[in-house]
């Protein structure tokens, strides 16, 4: 019997655990599904253009590895006339041919290969940066739409409440329990709220249209509720380091430094010109003279080569300083984002507390007005303050969610930003 009870308890515990996991909160509430976001990002023209740039750099790498030098052939013909002092004049048809090719000196070919590989790596990082920036824009546009939805919903609720209030005042007026002035005041408050509702709905449609045109294929399904923001865990340094570790813009700056350094080294090697080797044959004096030879052509370096090498060194120094400036800016932006996100959660909690109290005050004022112990002006003012507080709370709630998601996005914890999903899937 004890064994049977133990098995039953274990089974119930397993069912409870499975039910708990099934009812667990989604990891990113109020956001579109991650798989749809992946397809939308992969199909975005900016991301696709960055992907095509990789093909450009692949071809450029092949060009650098092959080198700019090619075989060339020279052909020539001439007619020789001889006027010897003794004997008749002579005329000969002669020709010559040569084949030649410049050769890269040792060390230059490997640097060209490194330069091409650096360009490909930089293009791949730039594609990640384009995908990241596009996802940032998507997140921002999505929350603009959510905020306009929240605003339209809040004003719709306010209009419904004021319509009910206006009908009650009109009924009291018919019964002689309210003055005509109160009916006018209630109708005016309702008209003002209806105007705000119309404006909010217009902004909602505009935001939805903008979002759907910027990111086709993204389903515009308004959430039934707004999730409660989660406090930001961890200190500022942890988040800043995580953002720097996954920041593509900083990776692009570092890639530019690496490529500039390789280019500087390659330009330094070019201060010694590449020689040209060739073979030539000739037939002179109508075939009496057959000539076979070899030659080498070595350009004499001048000031232009030295200036080019110096410019490449200076450009590498510029890239290094730009990397430092990029690191400084991204660090400051990451710190500001962390502190703003942390403060947003506290602001939302304070606003929610204020909205709850103002809502209670409005309900008490409405109760007092029903009992004839208050004026309609007081009730309308209380309703207006409560509505403004509730609207501010909803917007701050979405703001806190957006800032937290922005932190997760910049640390690659929100969406998969490292792999592309084919647009046709």
Gross CATH architecture:
Up-down Bundle
Main beta sheet, described?
4 strands, antiparallel
CATH homology group: Outer membrane efflux proteins (OEP)
SSE order, one letter for each helix or strand: HHHEEHHHHEEHH
Average pLDDT figure:
85
Q: Give the % helix.
A: 55-70%
- Strand percentage, roughly? 5-15%
What does the model show?
With 425 residues, the chain is an alpha+beta fold. It has one domain (37-76, 92-410): Outer membrane efflux proteins (OEP). 68% of the residues lie in helices and 10% in strands. It has helices at residues 2-22, 34-43, 45-66, 108-174, 180-214, 236-245, 248-269, 303-370, 376-410; strands spanning 72-82, 90-102, 276-284, 289-297. The chain has a 4-stranded antiparallel β-sheet, with no helix packed on it. Strand 3 (276-284) and strand 4 form a beta hairpin. The longest helix is centred in the last third of the chain and has 68 residues, at 303-370. It is elongated and about 150 Å long.
């Amino acid at each position: 019997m004890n064994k049977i009870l133990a098995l039953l308890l274990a089974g119930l515990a397993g069912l409870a655990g499975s039910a708990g996991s099934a009812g667990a909160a989604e990891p990113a509430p109020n956001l579109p599904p991650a798989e749809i976001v992946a397809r939308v990002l992969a199909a975005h023209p900016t991301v696709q253009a960055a992907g095509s740039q990789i093909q450009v750099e692949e071809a450029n790498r092949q060009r650098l590895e092959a080198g700019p030098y090619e075989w060339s052939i020279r052909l020539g013909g001439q007619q020789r006339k001889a006027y010897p002092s003794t004997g008749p004049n002579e005329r000969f048809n002669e020709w010559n041919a040569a084949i030649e090719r410049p050769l890269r000196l040792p060390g230059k070919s490997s640097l060209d290969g490194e330069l091409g590989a650096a360009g490909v790596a930089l293009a791949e990082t730039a594609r990640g940066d384009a995908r990241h920036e596009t996802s940032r824009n998507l997140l921002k546009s999505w929350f603009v739409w959510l905020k306009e939805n929240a605003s339209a919903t809040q004003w719709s609720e306010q209009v419904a409440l004021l319509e009910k209030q206006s009908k009650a005042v009109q009924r009291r007026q018919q019964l002689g329990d309210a003055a005509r002035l109160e009916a006018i005041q209630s109708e005016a408050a309702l008209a003002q709220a209806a105007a705000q509702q119309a404006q909010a709905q217009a902004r909602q449609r505009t935001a939805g249209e903008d979002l759907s045109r910027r990111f086709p294929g993204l389903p515009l399904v308004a959430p039934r509720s707004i999730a409660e923001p989660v406090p930001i865990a961890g200190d500022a340094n942890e988040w800043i380091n995580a953002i720097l570790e996954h920041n593509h813009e900083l990776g692009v700056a570092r890639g530019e430094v690496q490529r500039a350094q390789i280019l500087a080294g390659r330009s330094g090697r070019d201060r010694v010109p590449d020689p040209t080797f060739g073979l030539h044959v000739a037939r002179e004096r109508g075939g009496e003279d057959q000539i076979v030879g070899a030659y080498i052509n070595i350009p004499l370096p001048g000031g232009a080569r030295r200036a080019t090498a110096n410019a490449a060194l200076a450009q590498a120094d510029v890239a290094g300083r730009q990397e430092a400036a990029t690191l400084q800016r991204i660090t400051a932006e990451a710190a500001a984002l962390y502190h703003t996100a942390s403060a947003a959660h506290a602001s939302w909690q304070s606003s929610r507390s204020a909205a709850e109290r103002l809502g209670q005050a409005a309900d008490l004022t409405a109760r007092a007005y029903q009992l004839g112990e208050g004026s309609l002006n007081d009730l309308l003012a209380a309703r207006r303050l409560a509505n403004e507080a509730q609207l501010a709370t909803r917007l701050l709630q979405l703001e806190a969610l957006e800032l937290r998601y922005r932190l997760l996005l910049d640390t690659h914890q929100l969406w998969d930003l490292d792999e592309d999903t084919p647009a046709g899937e």
